[in-house]
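Researcher: Next sequence.
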Amino acid sequence: MNTSIKNLHTVSSLTFEIKNLFETNFKYIKVKGEVSNLKKQHSGHIYFTLKDKSSSISVALFAGYANKTLIPKDGDEIIIEGEISVYAPRGSYQIIAKNISKTGTGDLLMKLHLLKEELNKKGYFDKEIKKPLPKFPKKIGVVTSGTGSVIKDIINVLSRRYPNFQLILYPVSVQGAGAELEIAKAINDFNKHHLVDVMIVGRGGGSLEDLFCFNERVVADAIYNSKIPIVSACGHETDFTIADFVADVRAPTPSAAAELVVVDKALVKQALDKQKQTLYQITQARIKQFKTQIEKMAKSRAFVSPYSMLSIFIQNVDNLSMNLDKALIDSITLKKKLLHEKKKSLELLSPETKLKAAKEKIKSLCKHLESINPNNLLKKGYSLIFKKDSKTIINSIKQLKADENITIRFSSGSAVAKIEQLKD
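Model: Next structure:
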């Protein structure tokens, strides 16, 4: 009982385990069978059944792979390369197809598949290196057969779309042994001599064998190394070659390639006429707008009574002028005052002034010395008393003794006298 519960699955868990088992062990398979019940969806996805005498299996060819491989039809014997996937909602398994080829072409397809993987890893298909096509090429180069319908179709399209085109045809073989070398040489020569602005490389439709020269490495290298933009148009809309993946632009047919490399002259003229009309309308509208603005300005207060608007500015200018004049006068007056003060300071510091002041000071000193000269005092009636036979001046009675002889000096001479009596 416990064992049964332990091994019990839900539908989802069982389906998940089966899905994991299938998708882990069948990551890459090759299956051969007959196509039946093929249905194309609006999304681009294709669904069909692959069967043999006793069994059948569902196949899904999604749009991402459908654009890069053979699209089969009911009754075709094909080989599918892909992987097994379990569709959980129905609990059924199916093949997710990645590449489809007809039986009998397995070796070529394997060679194509290996080269495609190699070039993809080396970046030959990267979108970042694709060169843009010139809008108005002066010279168009075409690498194709010189006798087939392809060149005629290209010329017809170019003549219809842009009659003044210049075309240089480099005729080559487009199938069979050595065709790939001719194609590669043509591409290299166009680049070597800078003959054209853009190239169309291609041919009409055909089998895988017919188109295989465009799947060769030498052609892929020539397209990859080309400095001139290349449009590849190899086969019909459903045919894909390595040249298509390496080229800057892939066209479904040679006629479509011709439409891509030149614009339709009539459409260009129509676009220019439309732009001309639009420009004329814009110009007229701007002229009308400016005219309205000018008329409005002519009626504005600024033109009718300019002084009413300008009076405040005029008065401001006058006030500024008066203030400037006053500031200049005040500045000049101040400068004059400072100059006068500096002049006085310089005069006081001049040697002549200093000499004159020194003379006045000496003169004053002389007068002072003269006023205190003893001889001048004596002339006024004063006298000097000395001890006899001494130059010591007697200026106090305490220096005298009774009966002591003294010398009295007058302005005109001296006399000797004797002290008879001392009084305080």
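Model: The chain has a mean pLDDT of 84. DSSP finds 15 helices and 13 strands in the chain.
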